[in-house]
Design a protein that fits this description.
The structure is a single chain. By secondary structure, the chain is mainly beta. The strands form five sheets. It has a seven-stranded antiparallel beta sheet, with no helix packed on it. A seven-stranded antiparallel beta sheet has the order 11-12-25-14-21-22-23, covered by helices on one side. Strands 2, 4, 5, 7, 8 and 9 form a six-stranded mixed beta sheet that branches. The chain contains two helices and 25 strands. The protein has helices at residues 4-23, 305-318, and strands spanning 32-37, 41-43, 47-55, 62-67, 73-78, 82-86, 91-101, 104-107, 111-116, 123-124, 136-137, 147-150, 158-163, 170-182, 190-197, 200-207, 216-222, 228-235, 241-242, 245-246, 249-256, 259-264, 267-273, 282-288, 290-301. It has two domains: 4-116, Immunoglobulins (Immunoglobulin-like); 123-318, Jelly Rolls. The longest helix has 20 residues, at 4-23.
């Protein structure tokens, strides 16, 4: 993915280019008005820069207009000759700029760019438009040894990534978790899996404390106002440390409508009712101030043989 540093460098070059063009004006007073884009291909969720080349335009306002194949829509009006546009939809797009100087309206050439999926092979942007957080490394999310890393950061943050292509009222998501450490001395760090509908979330998390002394899984919900509610807990017997050696454990979150089932290392621990959590959801990985690596993951939507087998096993185990 392109970094903000690269974007700012590109914008600086654009500014210098615009300044040079203005400085090279032939002095005939004729208005010259053109447009270019910084990137022909942009990753979904990132920004593209539109750069206007203007001579003798004065301080006229510039309208930046984008089309996805139909009518142009104004996305910004400013006197600046650089406009940064956040790409929130996939597809082919056209952009143009317009300006009015005196009684005359000027229209630039139309320039095209394409917005593509980013992230890894399995995790990235959700079908509902959710973007993974910046501190999740998806660069190794491909092949037989695929993994994603919720990185170590000097802050107390929530970091998350979405399963690509999953939006369902029924799914089963499994991942092996290696908890590397705690970020910024948080007293209650967590690593887990989640489902999301809008701003609502249901979250299954290892709650092991910074010293790994607490072998519990907690199930929590976040309401539409963004408030977390900490609910049912389950005990498990597998540690994450043996002396100084890190150990891994797997976790499974199964959603069947408003009912969630949780498992650790293939053993079903119980179920939770999430009243009001209705409709198709995205799903993915979520950490709270914890450095963790997820691997050996799989996800199956309702209707698949894998989901039905897992659901039957969960129901039998807790009957």
């Amino acid at each position: 993915m392109k970094t903000m540093k690269k974007l700012l460098c590109g914008l600086l070059i654009g500014c210098l280019t615009a300044g040079i063009c203005a400085g090279c004006s032939k002095g005939d007073g004729e208005v010259r008005f053109g447009l270019e884009v910084q990137n022909d291909v942009v990753v979904l969720g990132e920004s593209n820069a539109f750069l206007v080349r203007a001579e003798n335009l004065g301080t006229a306002e510039i309208s930046y207009e984008v089309s996805a194949g139909d009518a142009f829509e104004t996305v910004g009006v400013t006197k600046e000759t650089i406009f940064v546009y956040r790409c929130r939809e996939r597809g082919e797009f056209s952009v143009r700029a317009t300006a009015k100087a005196g009684e005359k309206r000027y229209v630039s050439e139309t320039v095209c760019f394409r917005v593509v999926d980013g992230g890894g092979e399995n995790f990235g942007t959700s079908p509902t438009g959710g973007f993974p957080s910046i501190n999740v490394d998806l660069s190794r999310d491909s092949g037989e040894d695929a993994c994603i890393e919720h990185k170590s950061v000097k802050n107390i943050t929530e970091e998350f990534a979405y399963c690509k292509g999953l939006e369902s009222e029924k799914f089963v998501l499994t991942a092996t978790v290696d908890i590397v450490g705690t970020n910024y001395n948080d007293k209650y760090p967590k690593t887990g899996l989640f489902a999301e509908i809008g701003t609502q979330r249901c979250y299954m998390a290892f709650d092991v404390r910074p010293d790994f002394s607490n072998n519990e899984v907690v199930f929590a919900t976040r309401d539409s106002a963004g408030t977390w509610h900490w609910g049912k807990t389950f005990r498990f017997d597998a540690p994450f440390r043996s002396g100084t050696q890190r150990l891994v454990n797997s976790m499974t979150l199964l959603r069947d409508g408003e009912t969630f089932y949780v498992a650790v290392n293939g053993t079903w621990l119980g179920s939770v009712q999430a009243a009001g959590f209705t409709g198709p959801s995205a799903a993915g990985t979520l950490t709270m101030s914890q450095h963790a690596v997820y691997s050996d993951y799989s996800v199956y939507a309702g209707g698949s043989a894998e989901f039905e087998t897992a659901l039957s096993a969960a129901q039998r185990a807790i009957a």
